Amino acid sequence: MPATVFNNDVHIAGQLTFSSDGGISLPKDSVTDTQVQAAAAIAASKLQSRLRKSYAQPSTQQATAETKVIHVARAAGQVESFVAGLVSKCQDGATVSFDLKKNGTSILTGTVTLSDQHADYETVSGTIDTLSYSAGDVFEVSVTVNAGFGSLGSGAFAQAVFDENPS
Q1: How far apart are CA 100 and CA 142, in angstroms?
Q2: Domain locations in the chain as residue ranges
């Protein structure tokens, strides 16, 4: 059967159905978030994943210098945000600094540094310089401390948010 061609806009007031052996091909980007019902059965393998990866030292422990892996990328993606804080703030000029590294290299424009000017449990956002990443990239949180003549805060913590593509 030859195809029917419409050279103008078409409006269908009722429901449009297809035969069981037919299909539909839609142009790229023609289906957006508003067209997908909340109960749509879409496989997770077709969706981008939002991953929140946390780092924390014990709440009652004075901050100590260390570097720990928090995420290994399973697919390409983008780093959305990075925040850091202390359960108890530093005193008298001491500082605790946080860095987010990809494969050993900082991806921030500068470290997030907390001092006696920050409140207990206050989170400070880092500015991400390198957003995109590839499958296999390894992310670490690196903490450095400077007690100076004061006392370091306790309970160092950080969180990075990753939007990872389907694998």
Answers
A1: 6
A2: 48-164
Instruction: Specify the CATH number of the domain 48-164.
Output: 2.60.120.1110
Question: What pTM, to 2 d.p., does this model score?
Answer: 0.79
Statement: residue 22 has pLDDT above 70: no
Q: Is 25 a residue whose pLDDT tops 80?
A: no
User: Under 8 Å CB-to-CB from 49, ≥6 apart: which residues?
Assistant: 163, 164, 166
**How many other β-carbons are positioned within 10 Å of the β-carbon of residue 114?**
25
CA–CA–CA angle 90, 93, 98 (5° rounding): 55
Cα–Cα distance for residue pair 15/101, rounded to 1 Å? 52
* CB of 81 closer than 8 Å to CB of 161: yes
Q: How far is CA 49 from CA 32, 58, 88, 159, 164, in A?
A: 17, 28, 32, 16, 5
Q: Which two tokens stand for residue 33?
A: 């978030």
Q: Please, are residues 64 and 86 in contact by the beta-carbon 8 Å criterion?
A: no
